[in-house]
């Protein structure tokens, strides 16, 4: 996979059992030691069955490198103007297929709100889906381990959850200036 800054890419998140979930366009921004950075400029449309969301401000996402030991997540970093600073979906390790990145959302989310408070969201959904969607035990173990790892990193502001994303927000703004 070779992308250049500004190239369009597509993100496809599903639920277990290949159930449809969020699909949205992105702008490839670049890569660093953490992974591939994607931009979602203000106005980006995120869709899933029964829901539609248009980004009210710029955001950047991070797809972890395939060679990282812990990569069962996909992160979104919001503009300082947003009510949420960081939102990390615990997921199957993302896989690139050309200009499309795919992952299975496993319900658990690690969130740092605008006040700086950090929490795990959707634990109830994870508990329900691990039964109703039949998550294999190895997937459950991996999701819980990823969640613990990400929670500690976000809480302790360990890179890339330390403001690293701000330079990528600037790069997005430079690429999308109208």
Keywords:
single chain; 178 residues; FomD barrel-like fold; two-stranded antiparallel sheet; 3 helices; 43% strand; globular
Structure description:
This protein has 178 residues and is α+β, with helices and mostly antiparallel strands. It has helices at residues 123-132, 137-155, 165-176; strands spanning 8-15, 19-32, 35-40, 45-48, 51-54, 59-64, 73-78, 84-91, 95-97, 100-113, 118-121. The protein has a single domain, classed as FomD barrel-like fold (Beta Barrel), CATH 2.40.380. Strands 1-2-3-6-7-8-10 form a 7-stranded mixed barrel. The model has no long low-confidence stretch (mean pLDDT 95).
In percent terms, what proportion of residues is strand? Answer: 35-45%
What sort of overall outline do the alpha carbons produce when their principal axes are compared? globular
* Beginning-to-end CA distance, first to last residue: 28 Å
Strand order of the largest sheet: 1-2-3-6-7-8-10
Q: In short, what is this structure?
A:
This protein has 178 residues and is of the alpha+beta class. Helices cover 23% and strands 43% of the residues. The chain has helices at residues 123-132, 137-155, 165-176; strands at 8-15, 19-32, 35-40, 45-48, 51-54, 59-64, 73-78, 84-91, 95-97, 100-113, 118-121.
């Amino acid at each position: 996979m070779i992308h250049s800054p500004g190239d369009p890419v597509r993100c496809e998140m599903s639920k277990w059992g290949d159930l449809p979930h969020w699909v949205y366009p992105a702008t490839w921004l670049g890569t660093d030691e953490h992974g591939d950075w994607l931009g979602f400029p203000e106005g980006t449309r995120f869709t899933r069955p029964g829901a539609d969301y248009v980004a009210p401000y710029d955001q950047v996402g991070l797809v972890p490198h395939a060679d990282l030991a812990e990569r069962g997540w996909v992160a979104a970093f919001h503009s300082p103007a947003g009510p949420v600073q960081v939102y990390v979906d615990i997921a199957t390790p993302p896989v690139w297929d050309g200009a499309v990145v795919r992952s299975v959302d496993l319900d658990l989310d690690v969130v740092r709100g605008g006040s700086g408070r950090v929490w795990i969201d959707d634990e109830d959904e994870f508990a329900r889906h691990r039964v109703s969607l039949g998550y294999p035990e190895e997937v459950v173990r991996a999701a819980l381990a990823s969640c613990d790892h990400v929670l500690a990193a976000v809480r302790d502001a360990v890179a890339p959850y330390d403001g690293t994303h701000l330079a990528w927000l600037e790069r997005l703004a430079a690429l999308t200036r109208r």
